[in-house]
Structures are given as structure tokens and as C-alpha cells.
Design a protein that fits this description.
Number of strands: 6
Shape: globular
Strand order of the largest sheet: 1-2
Strand content: under 5%
Largest sheet: 2 strands, antiparallel
Length: 833
Amino acid sequence: MRLTILGLVVAALACGAPVDFEHDVQPLFAKRCSGCHGAQQQMKGLRLDDRESAMKVIVPGNSAGSTLIVRVTSTKRGFAMPPIGAPLTEAEIANLRAWIDAGAKWPATAAKAVAPKHWSFLPVHRSPAPDVRYRAWIRNPIDAFVLAKLESENIEPSPEADRRTLLRRVSYDLTGLPPTPAEVDAFLADNRPDAYERTVDRLLASPHYGERWARHWLDLAHYADSDGYEKDRGRLWAWRYRQWVIDALNRDMPFDEFTIEQLAGDLLAHATVEQQVATGFLRNTLTNREAGVDRAEARFEQIINRTNTVSTTWLGLTVGCAQCHNHKFDPISHKDYYSMFAFFENAEEQNIDAPLPGEVRPYLEALPEYRAAREKLLAEYRIPEFEAQWEARLKQAYTNQGKDLEWDFQLTEFRAGYDGERKILTGDATNRSRREQDRLIDYFVDHIGPDFSKNKALAESLKSVREKLQALAAALPPYTQAPVMETDTSISQSHIHLGGDYKNVGDPVEPNTLAILPPLAGEQHDRLALARWLVSPSNPLTARVTVNRMWQEFFGIGLVRTSEDFGTQGEAPTHPELLDWLAAEFVDSGWSMKQMHRLIVTSAAYRQSSHARKELESRDPENRLIARQSRLRLPAELVRDAALSVSGLLNPEIGGRSVKPPQPKGVAELGYANSVKWVESKGADAYRRGLYIHYQRTTPYPLLSNFDAPDSNTTCTRRRRSNTPLQALNLLNDPVFFEAAQALARRVLLEDPQPQTRLDYAFELCLGRPPQARERERLSRYLDSERTAFLTDKKSAAAMLPFDIEGTTPDQRAAWVATSRVLLNLDEFITRE
């Protein structure tokens, strides 16, 4: 920040003006001097609230020799202070000089200033629902807080949305899918006073609820199906963690358990397979497979990522800003950062068997025959003998690096490409499990090394072994594995890394939490203790941060807009009492996510119409006062889901492996050395929900990128919503949407035999409502004009829908495909009202 504050204070002191140091000066001295990263590095965290620190840049009685004066009088870019904003005035500099020349007297009674605690670090306070005038509007306590704010601004809430809009809204918000015409009809016909609440309960019980809310959580976990970085190798079993998230949400696993299992499920007593699978949350970090990268550096970057991800996801703080130095705005020290970092330093990556229901028996029945065939094949080609020689040479290169360049290269490639390489290079082969030995042999057969490569006949022989081993494995029934975490007991001490440099090791630190927050309970400081601390009643952040993100999903913006930053540089809550009431209710409800979602969507605030109000356009353009609902463009995955759903193409299967639906040519080819292979999924797999689309970090599915899906490199707490020409082109020309238009046309022609009511049916399918008279008339004219055009262009007509439908002609079918494309491209279709 600028030094102007100090200049003004010193001016008062130098002029002899009456100043109460404790009241007028001390709070200002709590401010930090430097305001940008470069200045922070140069000034080494100078604080003006601390005499010892301040005297590092001040020579009492000698202003000319004081670094502070040299800096504030300099014009050198990157050196002058303040680093940003206007320089100090001559009068302000004169005041500083006078104060220093007079001895820079620091009152003996002055203690180090302690700024008041930021609101988010204070305990959660549950206020009673406020009194309001318009009590009839209130449906639950949420509304009292919202209405009190509106009444204080002399604003009335909006009327409730019509029932069709309300059903479509809550269906998208809870399941991510549009209501079917049958569901709309049933809701409209239900005259019971709790008809809406019954619908909400039905949607919460839907297995699609877990899919809808898993997408939000996977953004926080920055889930992807590939490693990232240059090589961006695929992750065969990443989806198993996604499966766990969906199942946990559908079961309404309490959020405290949800937290503990993801961060430390492997440390729970008698941990189950599913509890271990939950730790896949920590496996979503990027993995650098570049052979030239120092493996210690690569691992350091992964732990940095885990520390930052956990801190943002649960604490809503920019803890990562303290990686290189003390946080310049929040009370988070450099030591605090590496104390958090220490929780993850002894966490090691591992894969375990995590079969799905129905996989175990077929696999075990086929396993003896597979093992016998494998062992016979390995013995026939002397693979164990060759692998032992290769491994010995690899270890020799590890302990004598620089002696043999060929084996040095093989070593760096092995360390980059083989997970758990350190155990192989430093461990005893006799202690390996069969799985570990099988995996090492498979790696050897793929990477036979320089010695065996020189023997052409042997190299060809080993290549044939690789192909036969792959064929054997492919014949085995599926047996799912999962990426998890486990504790590496060989790592016992963590350190501060000065300047955030993995090589620059400073003082040792023990695993611990942020000093500004309540202390960690107990003597055991491990990931399990951290997880329990995050969801302890004394922690004021986790519940606040989590309910704020819920609100964000239902209203478009959180009560705190900066859902990633609850620190001093974040935005204050618009409704602080409501935020704390929701946080307290979340904990008191037993951390039930479904209960909180039900509470929000059954409130009068949520049910309001989303129609814009002229009188509020300039006064509250972002609807922060919640005088209406917000009109939101569907998230990327849901845009595609909606098209597949209304067209009848959607495969509603829950969970399972990632899929690769059709995408434009040339996208996968952008990957490293043409290594990304996009083999299109066939049959029903091509029509699965967007949640299951394989996410390749370096070449993501274009639709997802066009509609603002995050890049999955770091945690994402809130997606942006853009409106670009690429999105319109995507909806109009993408093969997926053209096929959806074809299927929608076919569905309308088959399911509604009456030509005069087909437009109404198409509208009901796509928008959940009948068309208005003007809409019907315009669309009818368009349908007729398209049919006329296709009568003379029979080739194009045949290409639009090459399926015969009894009672229709090619021009009629083609015209309906064109009309379906219009409906699927409507703004209303891709918008949640």
C-alpha cells in the first residue's frame, strides 16, 4: 500500500499536533508498507507496526542515510516506493525526513498493533430470524433475512414464478435435466398445497442428483482424466473417484464425513475400500512426466497443489499466496503455509483394487487361467531373468549417475513415467506384492533399455511378448482399480522452503493449521487430524464457505461473491446474518447437503420470478439484494445433456468409465506428439451425460471449453458465464447437436401423429411450455418455408434425416430437422429461468 498513511501520521507528530498514539497511530501502523509482489520481495515483508522491523529501513537522526527515504524519493521503476499508485508528495516526504532527523521516536508504550479480526475468522453467530412487515411472504427463515434487507431498501420481492418455470428451474438445479412433458403435466395437475415440496423431495431422491452436484464438486477437486503438462498421459482409473463422489452425494453422506474420507479415508481405523477410494480427491493434481524435470521438484509442485486446493476448497482462503513469503493481506505467515504443506508431505500415491458390484466373481473365476498363461509366457521368453538384469542396471545408474549416459536417460525416463519409482530404486524386490512385480515387468517389456535394444533379435522377441501380454490382459473380465493415497513413513520431517523454492530449505516445521484460526486438537497431527479440524464446530470457515457455494449455485452469485476468497481482499457478504444462519443450520442439521438444498429451493426467495425489473436495473443490476431470481445460462455439460434429453438420445446410466463422444477432427491431434488418441465411444456410451466426457487437460472437449468449463489445472470455485459467437456455432454445427436435432424431429413425428399439434409438442419437449400464438405462427411459417425449399432440393432433404418414418415424406422430415435445430438453438433452451 502507499506510504501516505505513514506520512500523514508523521506530519501530525512532527507538527506537534495532539495525537493519541494508541487510538490514532497504532491502528495505521498495522498496515504493511509494500503492495506488490516485486516490492514484497525487495522489502522482505517490512511492517510499520513493528519498531524492530521499521528500524531496518530507518537510521534515527539521519534521514539521508535511511533506506526508507532513498526508496520514497527514487524514480527508478521497480525500486521506488510506493510500487503502485501516485508517489508521495514533497510535503509527505518532508514530514518523514523531519521525523527521522528528530530521532524517529517510537513511543515506549506502543505495542505492536493488532488489527481487529476479519469477519470470516470470527465464530459463526446464529442470529434469530429478523422481524419483517410482509410476513405472509415468508416460507422459511431464509426469507426473513432476505426480506429484512429488501424492506430496509424499500424494495418488494418479485412474485413467484409460474409453475412451469418453477419446475424447470428446480429440475435443472437439483438433477441437471429438464422435466419431461409427463412430469410437467403431473405437477400442474397436483393441487395439493405441498405439491412443490413433494416434487423437490422426488428430485432430491433421484440418482441424477448425485451427478448434478458431483460436477460442482469435481470443479473444486479439478478432476480430469489425464496428467496435464506436455505429455498429458491418460489416467485409466481416475473415474473411480468420480463414481465415489456421485454415490456419496446420492446417499447424502454428511459433509463432515465427506470431508474426512476424501482427505484421510486411508487413515481411518479399518478403512474400507470405498473410504480409500475417497482419497482420490488428492490424486487430481497434475503429474509432470517430462524426463528432464527433477522428480523432487515435480513432487514438491504436487504437494503445493494439494495444499492450495484443500485451503481454497474448505477454507476459502488464498493460502497459496504465502508459498513464497508471508501473505501480504491476510494473517497467514510463510511458516503457516509450510505447516499446512507438511500434512501432505508424507502422503504417497498408490493404486488399489476397487471393483464395482458384479466384477469380483467373473474376474476371480478367470484369474487362475490367466495367471498360468502369463507365467508360462514369461518363463518361455526368460522375462524374469531379463527384467532382473534390467533392474540391476537401472539401480546402478541411480547410484552412479553420470557414468553411463544411455542408462542415465533410461533412468530419467523411468522416474518420470513410473509411479512409485522411488520404491523400486531404493527398496528390496523381495518385499514387493505380486501386483507391484507384475506392473514392473509390464513396464520393462515396454521399455527394454539400451542393452537389450542393441540385440535386434531379442528386441523383436520382447516386442512379441508385449503384444501377447496385452492380448491376455484384454481377455480378462474387467476389474476396476482406483488411485488413492497412503502414508509414506520414510518421510518424517518437513521444512519451510524459502522463497517457495523446493531447493532452498529453511527451518523444520511440524504439521499444523493456520495460527489465525482455532488450534488443532490432540497430539496426532496428520491428515486425519487436519480433516477433523476443518469440520470441527470451532472452525468458522468451512461451513460458511460451503453454504455460500450452495447459494452461488442456486442464485448465480454467492452471498460472498468471491467464493474462493473469504480473506481481507475478498468481498464482504451482502447478507452476513443470513450467511451465518445458513452455516449454523448446516452444522446443526448434521452436515446434510440435501437438507440444505431443500431448505434453499423451498424458500420464497428461490421461487421468485427471474424477470428483470426496470426500477432495479441501475440500483441492483446484479440482483445482490435478491429481489428476484437470476436467469442463468446452463453449465457446459448441461447444455449437451439438455439436447440429448429432449431428443430422446440421452443414456441415463449412472456412473462408470469416462466416454469419448464425437468431436471435431483436429482437436486430439493438438496433443503432444500425436499421443492423444480419441477413439469415439460407440452405441449408448456416445450419449452419456457430459459429466462422463473424458477430460483431456491439454486438448479438452471443445464444447466444454466453449461454454466455460474450467481447465482443471487448479481448483475452480465458480465458473464464469460468457456469451460468444463460438457458442452459437457450436450449437448450430456440432455433430452432436445436429444429431440431437435429427432425433428430436424423429421423436416429434413418431410420438405426435397430429400435424396441427406437433409444434406444441416440440415446444413442450424443449421448453416445458406451449408456444405463444406469435411463436407458433412464426415457427409454422418457418416449417412451411423449409419444406418448400426441400421439395426442390431432394438430395439435401435425404441427407437431413435419412430414416424413413411411416406417413412422412423426405421434405417433411428434413423441414422438421431444420425446425428442431431452431428450437435447440433458442436462448431459452440453454437458459435456466
